[in-house]
Input
Amino acid sequence: EEDSLSPFIRLQEKKKQARLMQKALEVKEEAFRERMKVITCQWRDLHTKEAQLKAYMEKSGRILKENDKMRIQALKKASKERERKMQKEGELLKTKRELEALRNKHQKLCNKVQKYSIFNKYLEDVVKISHFGEIQEVIWRYKTLVRMHKDLLQSQQAHKEMSEQAKVLLDQYTAEKEAEILQYNNERVQLQLRFDQAQSDVLPWETCWADIQNTTAKKTLKLGTIKMAILNLFQ
Output
């Protein structure tokens, strides 16, 4: 849908540009015609002035020879008129070039409109077989879907970044806990070794305690026998 609608949107934009270009071209053409009228009038005035100046120069040749100041002024005026004429010719040439460029651009836009017209026909067929009432509704729907797709991609990117951050935090937490477990295991091994050593130390002391208890029992029995003997002797 995106591949099929994007050219049509470009087509609509190109049509709009073509209409704007057409209006600009018409304005340029109108301005060009007005400028041509002004330039034509100026040309006529210039030729008239040149003819008048020529007649005046022929008629007043003797006076101009006697009056250098008037001759210099006339030459300056003629030079200015020639400069104005060259300037107008330059403006006319520039306007012609601009007009030609506008025509070429307008022709290109017309060609693009003709090229993308098949998408307009395609959307008209889509409107006929769908619930849309007009082509503009299809374009609005397309723009809405594109915007939703963009939002979805941004949301997925945000969730992906959050998942990556959570994974990094989980890895750090796991590493810390593994280090703690390793430390506790080392402490447990040390305690087990101490416990085993304590058990190995208890056995001799238990043996010694048993010997002491046996000795005490023998002496207690001997003491009782002595008491019985003394008691018998006393009786």
User: Anything to note?
Assistant: The first helix runs from residue 2 to 59. The mean pLDDT is 81. The helical segments are 2-59, 61-66, 68-115, 117-129, 135-234.
